[in-house]
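Notebook p. 47: complex prediction with FO1.
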Amino acid sequence: MIVALAGGVGGAKMAQGLQAALPPGGLTVIVNTADDFDLYGLRISPDLDTVMYTLAGIADPVNGWGVAGDTRNTLDAIARYEQDLWFLLGDQDFATHVLRTEWLRAGKPLSAVTEQLAAALGIPSAILPMSDDRVATLVDTPAGRLEFQDYFVGRRQSDDVLGVAFAGIEHATALPAAVSAIEGAEAVIIAPSNPIVSIGPILETPGMRAALVATPGPIVAVSPIVGGRALKGPAAQMLATLGHEVSALGMARLYADLIDGLVIDAIDRDMQAAIEALGPRVLVTQTVMGGEDDRRRLASEVLDFAGALAARRTAAR
Ligand code: FO1
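Predicted complex, structure tokens below:
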């Protein structure tokens, strides 16, 4: 079993490549749920849905989130009541949130809700929320403390990020199925998702780091920073204002205590020696994922790299 840790669009693309490169049932994706929030009385889990739609092959190819070809009739109707349409939900996407909300209210845990949704979409991989407990990312900015989607979508990531907090995380428990998957994994792949707000909450969920320390396989991260810029979203700006170096080397420093290998882009090949001096081995390749072929090619290379690191680990024991 290969385990991937993933956040939004970058994580979903990596997961899709891994799913394509592995036999059916060979992938478990552990997903950030600290972006989850309530809107119009519905529970929205953007990262779970982005991974789910992408693995089902129905994600919007332009945005990366939402369903391809979705309509906005429900939002248009909501706008008639003079509501501010700051978060765009398509009609098919609404169906997911309606059922998730109903099933959660009936007492099903988020993991069971997600399993049922993913099974109905015919997804051959396991998609697991990092926890069944609620955790909410809060972003400290010069304008004050903001809820994550207010910062990310409402204000278009325009505020400097001075700090990040994960409300409720101290009372959360890593999903037991996620812990077992990690503890039995052949390899754990940290997707090129935002290290602060996508991978950060997963790693900080109590029980998750201990599972990662205990995993028998190698842990390999794919850098979301390429040529000093983020592949998508505000990761570069966020890393800078939080005092981290915005580079593949900066990523290596962030993950150094956890990873055996780091995959960096060819443009960053000059950093290989400095990264390996910190501990992790480095694979240099083309990491920018375009279409599905690209995702599968990168996933295969990452899996081969992890295989080589596993052999090294065994030899070292
Ligand atoms: N991101 C946006 O930038 N604007 C949106 O209107 C938006 C709507 C949306 C609806 C459903 C969904 O699952 C995701 C959506 N996202 C939108 C993406 C989402 O806010 C982010 O990708 C994550 O929370 C960050 O990983």
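Notes: The mean pLDDT is 97. Residues 2-35+128-135+170-316 form a domain with the Rossmann fold fold (CATH 3.40.50.10680).
Next step: compare against the earlier run before touching the bench.
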